[in-house]
Write a structure and sequence with these properties.
There is one protein chain. It contains 8 helices and 39 strands. It is mainly beta. The mean pLDDT is 89.
Length: 705
């Protein structure tokens, strides 16, 4: 039993999963049963409307029984009998549920194992079963030929949840879109039931997986509602820098935990976290990355473990993320998806490796088509502004043979004085009408103060647009080129000191205000008034790193001067709270009392009310009046109530909302019921409070304008 109530935090705020965060093991097996079923998965038994449910010690429903029973389905391949999948139902009975002392009181089977078979009567062969929460979709490691071959991610679906028979013929998960997206499954179109099927899957290069293409991967975990699939993506450690990998006989796909789905814009993404802590272990053997699953999703308007007070995780972000547990290595990782879901990133470089797909030619074997590339780093924003490492920019493995993550968040890249990452110019790197935000983490590796002259080295620059640079003493500043009615002007923030170790640097400019702000480790270091103007642009590439801009060069051409991590460019002015979140600073959440009695089931202690703005009867009446006031929109034809209609549970009932001038927006209108119990507003959690949220639709040119 996982006990979130027993998870603590260290001095830095990171969660500590101590021995008490898991209950003692409960040995669950039947006498005489041979140990031949491996790679097992447990899933909810959908025959029960409430699952888990309060029970007595025997697993019978009892509202005051003091126990909690989980009715489960177990799917397991029989090894080595051609990896034949089998299914069985049972239950877990938990004592002292939802406490620090929760434990497994009992576990038992209800029936015998039965073979999983297709509607045509064929046995389903594969490994690593993963099932959606509704029990209709099975994703596993197998092959469309259903011959026991593995290393391809395939799926099968069933009109009856958790059934032993009636499964569809296995197909590559790429065919969820190409073949089955419009199939009616238990009353819903496949792509509505499982958003993973809404769009074609793409590799990191943006190439679509065509109909019938095999999707290489292993150890899949499909999210509960069929939106994303986590999986390993390539043979661990295989790069030109590790030729010994190609001589290994054991070439299991245990490298590169990756994810693809709705929250990645349907593009393969390599996870940048402790889940990918190295390419090989220090002894020269692949690190075992196998079974990985998520505790759930956080950071949007829905999240798990709301009933657990003072939960110390997630710690890394206030945006959409999964908290992942590695079952074999017992590692914990948080995988954030703000890069793709936020909508305002022009560039997001996690500064980790690239996964290249080598599409085999006709007649060539298809095994192991994915490979890690150490010469590129992916942009995980929707713009795919991928970078190429040049002239000494290198990951730790290539720079000094250190096979480990050394970044502030996951992997990072070393830069010598000549080194750079080059990103070709693109329209997305030139559109900053609403604002500009630059962010990065930097760590000094060399003592630049030994230089006689105080020379500025670039950390990030686009000629004719913007830059962040550092002097020999570690002071940082930002510069910007503005196009004004009076002509082109260049402005800089002036220097701000940094400390040793990893430092977060952020710069913002607002074209409508002319304000330039420089932040260091989340604190405002410079706040200057500049001219009103458009951010300059040209066709020059975006350069990350020094790139030989200072002469003479550093005496040792192979010595790293900096490490850089998490490089981000936004086409809006990020708020101070967003910058603090990027700097991983704790953010105090509001809490307060409500002046009137709440309906049954709602706790006043859970309300998120700022202490300096407590509600009154007068302010509540004013809020209700403004909510229905159309003068808050430019054309005086829209109010908040236009989209949040009381008779439709304060939504508009549309797949995507209609904004200013009837324009169809990117997202639909969420309900506003009980929003006072959450600090993270909007689908992506981008507003920290209702006070922030209230102004954004009014000012947004696409909404009320």
């Amino acid at each position: 039993v996982f006990r979130p109530e027993a998870v603590t935090a260290d001095a830095q705020g990171y969660p500590v999963f101590g021995p008490d965060s898991m209950s003692p093991q409960y040995l669950w097996m039947e006498l005489g049963e041979p140990m031949k079923r491996l790679h097992i998965g447990f899933f909810p038994n959908n025959d029960y409307k409430q699952n888990p449910f309060p029970s007595n010690a025997e697993g019978k429903f009892d509202l005051n029984g003091g126990f909690e029973t989980y009715e489960i389905v177990l799917i397991a391949p029989v090894i080595p009998e051609q990896a034949q999948m089998e299914i069985r139902k049972g239950q877990f009975i938990i004592g002292k549920p939802k406490t620090k002392e929760a434990y497994v009181h009992a576990a038992r089977f209800h029936d015998e194992f039965r073979e999983l078979r297709t509607a045509g009567g064929k046995r389903i062969r594969g490994l690593e079963p993963s099932v959606s929460f509704d029990g209709h979709l099975l994703v596993y490691q197998g092959h469309p030929q259903n011959d026991g071959t593995i290393d391809t991610l395939v799926y099968s679906y069933n009109q009856k949840a958790n059934s032993a028979t009636g499964w569809s013929e296995p197909r590559s998960i790429a065919d969820m879109y190409h073949v089955d997206r419009n199939v009616m499954l238990a009353g819903l179109p496949f792509h509505e039931r499982y958003p993973l099927a809404k769009k074609p899957l793409r590799d990191m290069n943006g190439q679509i997986y065509a109909k019938g293409d095999l999707y290489q991967g292993a150890y899949p975990w499909i999210s509960l509602d069929g939106t994303e699939v986590f999986h390993t993506s390539f043979v661990a450690g295989c790069t030109p820098a590790i030729p010994a990998c190609n001589k290994r006989e054991d070439k299991a796909l245990r490298g590169g935990l990756a994810v693809i789905g709705r929250w990645t814009n349907y593009t393969l993404r390599l996870v940048d976290s402790p889940a990918n802590i190295d390419r090989f272990s220090q002894k020269g053997h692949p690190t075992v990355r196998t079974l990985t699953s998520a505790l759930g999703a956080w950071g949007t308007m829905w999240q798990v473990y709301n009933e657990t007070p003072a939960l110390p995780f997630p710690y890394s972000s206030r945006r959409p993320l999964y908290a992942m547990l590695g079952n074999v290595r017992t590692d914990y990782s948080e995988v954030s998806f703000e890069d793709a879901m936020d909508g305002h990133y022009a560039l997001y470089l996690h500064m980790n490796e690239f996964v290249a797909r080598n599409r085999p030619k006709r007649g060539e074997p298809v095994q192991y088509q994915n490979a890690l590339s150490a010469t590129r780093t992916p942009d995980t924003s929707p713009n795919s502004n991928h970078g190429t490492l040049k002239d000494g920019a290198a990951f730790p493995q290539e720079h000094n043979g250190r096979d480990e993550n050394l970044g502030r968040a996951g992997q990072a890249i070393y830069f010598t004085d000549t080194a750079k990452i080059e990103i070709p110019s693109s329209p997305s790197l030139a559109r900053f009408e609403r604002g500009l935000t630059l962010e990065l983490w930097v760590k000094r590796e060399a003592d630049l103060s030994r230089e006689r002259e105080d020379r500025q080295r670039y950390l990030l620059r686009k000629s004719g647009s913007f830059s962040i640079f550092m002097d020999k003493n570690g002071n940082v500043q930002a510069g910007i080129v503005l196009k004004t009615p009076a002509g082109t002007v260049k402005r800089s923030t002036g220097p701000a000191p940094t400390a040793a170790g990893w430092t977060h640097v952020a710069f913002t400019y607002g074209p409508k205000t002319g304000r330039m702000k420089l932040y260091v480790n989340g604190a405002l270091a410079k706040d200057l008034q500049a001219e009103l103007g458009a951010v300059g642009s040209d066709d020059s590439p975006l350069i990350v790193g020094p790139g030989a801009q200072v002469h003479p060069l550093w005496p040792n051409p192979k010595e790293a001067l900096f490490m850089l991590d998490e490089v981000k460019i936004s086409n809006v002015v990020r708020t101070e709270r967003e910058i603090k979140a990027s700097a991983y600073l704790p953010i105090k959440e509001p809490a307060g009392a409500w002046p009137t009695e709440l309906p049954a089931g709602l706790k006043a202690s859970a309300l998120k009310i700022p202490q300096d703005n407590l509600p009154t009867a007068e302010s509540t009446r004013l809020g209700e009046r403004l909510f229905f006031d159309t003068t808050l929109s430019k054309n005086r034809d829209m109010s908040c109530a236009t989209c949040h209609r009381a008779e439709k549970a304060f939504t508009d009932g549309l797949p995507r909302a209609k904004g200013f001038g009837g324009h169809t927006l990117r997202r639909n209108t969420p309900t506003i019921l009980n929003r006072a119990f959450s600090t993270r507003q909007f689908w992506d959690g981008s507003a920290a409070s209702l006070e922030e949220q209230a102004l954004m639709p009014i000012e947004n040119p696409e909404e009320m304008n």
